[in-house]
Automatic annotation (TrEMBL):
The lineage of its organism: Bacteria, Bacillati, Actinomycetota, Actinomycetes, Kitasatosporales. It comes from Streptomyces parvulus. The keyword Transcription applies. It comes from the Bacteria. This is AraC family transcriptional regulator. InterPro entries: Class_I_gatase-like, DJ-1/PfpI, Homeodomain-like_sf, HTH_AraC, INH-QAR. One of its GO terms (molecular function) is DNA-binding transcription factor activity. PROSITE patterns: HTH_ARAC_FAMILY_2. Keywords: Transcription, Transcription regulation. Gene3D superfamilies: 3.40.50.880, Homeodomain-like (1.10.10.60).
Length: 319
């Protein structure tokens, strides 16, 4: 197997984790299986760059002297807001040559400026999805997944999702055993499915200000199989059902029912991805009661059945 060159582009005000996350994954895979990856970093002029958090990173050299990349990684950061035109030109010329073109966070903005995402489905950090869609209407922006693969181009939501995407690429290249070893070394999950939402139920809703409601939010996520009707939740919070529903929505930005629905769906997805529990068992544990009720929720929200979701997104067992 020929050694693959992973070229990571650096620029001033880059997000440090967008760089170091994927670098650690590919470097870890090289340590596990020597001769598989050569990780190279390069900046437009070959000069050190200062990240958005104040760290200084010294590249291996200038982009003009960088080797041809098997996998070209473009991180994000504040520097994507007004990028060096020379960097955009370099990406436009060299991006199509790489076997795989990868962006992390707002690195997708740089790819879009270079015309490399036109006609493709892509994602970026949730806070920048509207901007990406508005400024680049030829890009099919999906704000929900943590990463998206569209042919040879892969885009991710940023920060830790860059690690998820890099692990998926290592698994594609070298198999699950190597990817699992790297993940264990980094103390992360082997792989979150790319279509996993950028927000968990807790993050998607605001955290309530009042302690009873804040504690209730946490209790709901820990007990998805319990009676989570408005009357039961109101009693647990010590409020009347009407007062509870009004206060919950005012403080979290969503209704109790929607919060419960998202919590149960998230719990069921996690069980389908991470366990071998039967669909009926997952339905009961997640509060759906019956497999048919869970199937209706999955089809409505995800457009697929629980069985098909598991088939597509649960990692295959190690050989």
């Amino acid at each position: 197997m020929a050694q693959r060159t992973v070229l990571v582009v650096l620029f001033d005000q880059v997000q440090s984790l967008d760089v170091t996350g994927p670098v650690e994954v590919f470097a870890g895979a090289e340590r596990h299986t020597p001769g598989t990856y050569r990780v190279v970093t390069a900046s437009p002029a070959g000069a050190p760059v200062r990240t958005s958090s104040g760290l200084t990173v010294v590249p291996d050299g200038p982009l003009a002297d960088a080797p041809e990349a098997d996998t070209l990684v473009v991180p994000g950061g504040h520097g994507t807001r007004a990028p060096d035109p020379g960097l955009t030109d370099w990406l436009r010329a060299h991006g199509p040559r790489a076997r795989r073109l990868v962006s992390v966070c707002t690195g997708a903005v740089l790819l879009a400026r270079a015309g490399l995402l036109d006609g493709r489905r892509a994602t970026t950090h949730w806070a920048y999805c509207d901007r990406l869609a508005r400024e680049h209407p030829a890009v099919d922006v999906d704000p929900d997944p943590i990463y998206v693969r569209d042919g040879r181009v892969a885009t991710s939501a940023g920060v830790t999702s860059g690690i998820d995407l890099a692990l998926a690429l290592v698994e594609e290249d070298l198999g699950r055993d190597t990817a699992l070893t790297v993940a264990r070394h980094l103390v992360v999950f082997l792989r979150r499915p790319g279509n996993q939402a950028q927000f968990s139920a807790q993050l998607a809703a605001q955290t309530a200000c009042r302690e009873p409601l804040r504690e209730l939010q946490q209790w709901i996520t820990e007990h998805p199989g319990a009676d989570l009707g408005v009357d039961a939740l109101a009693a647990r919070a010590g409020l009347s059902p009407r007062h509870f529903a009004r206060a919950f929505r005012a403080e979290t930005g969503t209704t109790p029912g929607r919060f419960v629905d998202r919590t149960r769906l998230e719990h069921a997805r996690r069980l389908l991805e991470d366990t071998g529990d039967g669909v009926g068992q997952v339905a009961r544990a997640s509060g759906y009661g019956t497999p048919e009720a869970m199937r209706r929720a999955f089809v409505k929200i995800l457009g697929t059945s629980p069985a098909e979701y598991r088939r597509r997104f649960r990692p295959a067992p190690a050989p």
